[in-house]
Amino acid sequence: MRIVDLLERDAALYPRRIAAAVAGGPSVGFADLRDRVLRLAAGLETAGVGRGDRVALMADNGLVFFDLCLAAAYLGAAAVPLNTQLAEAELAFILSNAEPSVTVATGEYAERLGAAGSTGPVVDADGDAYAALLASAPLAEIDRATEDDTALIIYTSGTTGRPKGVCLTQRALAFNGMTMAVVQRFRPDDVCLSTTPLHHAAAGTRVYSLLADAQTHVVLPLFSPESFFAAVAEHRVTISILVPAQLRRILGHPGFEEADLSSLRLVVYGAAPAAESLIRQAHERLGCGLYQAYGISEGVSNLTGLLPEDHDRAVAERPELLASCGRVVPGVRIETHDENGAPTAPGEVGEIWVKSEKVMAGYWRDPEQTAEALVDGWLRTGDRGRFDDEGYLYIAGRSKDMLISGGVNVYPREIETVLCDHPAVSEAAVVGRPDPEWGERPVAFVELRPEKTLDGLLDWCRQRLAKIKVPDEIIAVDGFPRTATGKIRKAELRQYSGTG
């Protein structure tokens, strides 16, 4: 199955249904979206884009993402969304690595791309050149792409090293839409709100996955609690994706009680760890189902799901489930493996290995990293976790984040969970600090709730953690350095504390 097959069906069966909308801005129906996409594809072809080529995009959330990603798919080319927060050196590397035939960008970003050395022409999405592309005669031949063609290249954030281009095929993206339709129980009348940038995998892949059965995709140009409330009310949003930091701001906003969120049936949260107290508050106050997931760009994001009924069960009788990320979604197989590659038993921590039609084809122009990540049909994620006897997966952390203190493996996430259970702590992050005696020792950073202090936090940890896991130091911060999707940049914390 190809991405283009999904859009062809949607346009034929639901021509007037809204396909994509910008909150507070324009919208487009499925038939009109198909027409725009075929015209843009023809224009890009005239500009030199062919099968296997790359088309880069740098813009804030808007209809241009739907235009470009789907037009590239019809040509058998790959869309390359660029993170608008990239440093100049990162941007220059990605452009030299991807070598886009054409790059589309909005105003200020177009200037940045030109300065960074884009290999092909840079087209201003707000200018006459882009309008001319959209005015082309529609692409006549719509069956040139294959399901094995790479349709999307998502570059990893580069927070711990050089960015890698994750190659996702039309088959993987279409298959992901089908799995999401099953596990999140898509309905044709669902309206999904994306609140994070579309250049990131979690939201960006929904440009494709919501084509599974003609779901409406609404995007926020810029998140705030007020813009979220307004978008949900205006578009009668039924599903929204939020990172924990956004969820916290929504629940803590003084206008929450008056906001009309009655249309919501599901809130999907993830991309960063969520404190149990936050999940319980959301369960009590949102009045809709909750869904938590574990996923990575290399697996088209969502690989497990903690379903609404799992949340209900956790609140009623099994609170430990709130620390899990659920069970494997349909179409995915996950095992945990030890250092020798052998499967581990339930309860034992191991590296998470994934097998699925959703798994990436490889890293763009990086055969060495691809060979390291893809082994005998399995994707080695670099994350560590354990299964319980019922198949719920618990994430221990990234392999590279694991500390070895006195010969004992220490997982920062376990310490972070304990800290976040304290009523004074809003969020926590733990990193390792070199130690001449122990090898490494944990250091914790915490964001405190208003009018709270660090008093008692170390004792709290001593009562709940083995001595080897108790942080040597707890540092209060006003806020954490973050990626665009809310993940904490631990590399910056290590530099700040002298740990790295």
What this model shows, in words?
It is a single chain. With 500 residues, this protein is of the alpha/beta class. The protein is built from 17 helices and 28 strands. A seven-stranded mixed β-sheet has the order 2-1-10-9-11-12-13. Strands 18, 19, 21, 22 and 23 form a five-stranded antiparallel β-sheet that branches. Strands 4-3-5-6 form a four-stranded parallel β-sheet, sandwiched between helices. α5 (107-116) links the parallel β5 and β6 (122-124). α11 packs across α12. The longest helix is centred in the N-terminal third of the chain and has 17 residues, at 30-46. The protein is globular, with a radius of gyration of 23 Å. 50% of the residues are buried.
With strands numbered from the N-terminus, the spatial order across the biggest sheet is: 2-1-10-9-11-12-13
- The whole-angstrom Rg is 23 Å
Q: Helical element count?
A: 17
Query: Poorly predicted ranges (pLDDT <50, ≥5 residues)?
Result: none
N- to C-terminal separation? 46 Å
Tell how many strands the DSSP assignment holds: 28
